[in-house]
Amino acid sequence: MKQPVRPKKALGQHFLTDQGVAQAIVAALRSRGPVLEVGPGTGVLTRYLLQDPALQLKVVEIDTESVRYLLEHYPRLAPNLYEADFLQMDLQRLFPDDGHFALIGNFPYNISSQIFFKVLDTRERIPEVVCMIQKEVAERLAAGPGTKTYGILSVLLQAWYDIEYLFTVGEGAFVPPPKVKSAVIRLTRNDRATLACDEDLFKKVVKTTFNQRRKTIRNSLKPILASLPTLPSYIPYLDARPEQLSVEEFVELTASLTAR
Fold first, then answer.
1. Cα 108 vs. chain centroid, distance in angstroms?
2. Whose CA, among 96, 102, 108, 249, lies 20 to 30 Å from 34?
3. Same domain, yes or no, for 203 and 185?
4. Are residues 231 and 136 in the same domain?
């Protein structure tokens, strides 16, 4: 069967064609009310999202050819279809009432990390994310401390979201087939309102230590420690490596750096 929209390598497009997988992704979404679908492509998820009257669906698509296809096959989308780059969108303008909205989509694998950083920046308004991403990335996000896949995004996302690895999707579910397996995950906002430390410093500590994950925290934090006006009397976990620390322990470590 001829693909109705030409997949574009530059956009990382691999169109999901397995209807059973599409239905399972939509069924994994627990939220009701406003929903934003990122990168609908040919509308394989859109079709099922539109069937649920409880969902107030908006979609954002960067590919002009996909936009034309969606408007032709799903004309009721017209008022709520935005031809734009999600990473550059002002979500405040898209949802101006300050209410919550869920995020769903088959995220382009080449920008999935950037999408998650945008989710973090908008976390007070996004209670749930259901998405398909590269399997290795999904495993990394859901990984716990003490594992090789646990890393920067694992800690930063798990500080604010509970992450569930839902199921694996094989290469044959797409046109063209990707060279890697895919996976569907669900992020659900936890009840953490604030961190018990400086959030910017927390991010800096997490990124600095994982970027030198073979070193002990003592060695990787030397530039940060040298920049402090006074050296704290006690800093925990200095002899550990970053993959050994939980979110709460990273918070404790960060808080100690500004303790008086």
1. 11
2. 108
3. no
4. no
Q: 220 lies in which domain range? A: 199-257
**How far apart are alpha carbons 162 and 182 in whole angstroms?**
20
Which residue type is seen at 224? Answer: I
- Whether pTM exceeds 0.90: yes
Read off φ and ψ for residue 102, nearest 5 degrees: -90, 160
Would residue 110 be called left, alpha or beta, if left means φ above 0 and alpha means ψ between -120 and 50 degrees?
Answer: alpha
Summarize the confidence of residues 36-62 as an average pLDDT: 96
- Summarised one tens digit per residue, pLDDT across range 137-165 is 999 999 999 999 999 999 999 999 999 99
Q: How high is the pLDDT of residue 9?
A: 67
Is the confidence at residue 121, as pLDDT, over 50?
yes
Q: How far lies 259's CA from each of 1, 193, 196, 222, 232, in Å?
A: 64, 21, 11, 17, 6
Do 218 and 96 fall within a single domain? no
Each residue's pLDDT tens digit, 169-204? 999 998 888 889 999 999 999 999 999 999 999 999
| Omega of the bond leading into 229 within 30 degrees of 0 (cis) | no
Q: Which of left, alpha, beta for 232 (phi over 0: left; psi -120 to 50: alpha)?
A: beta
Q: Which residues contact 62 (CB under 8 A, 6 or more apart)?
A: 11, 39, 83, 84, 85, 86
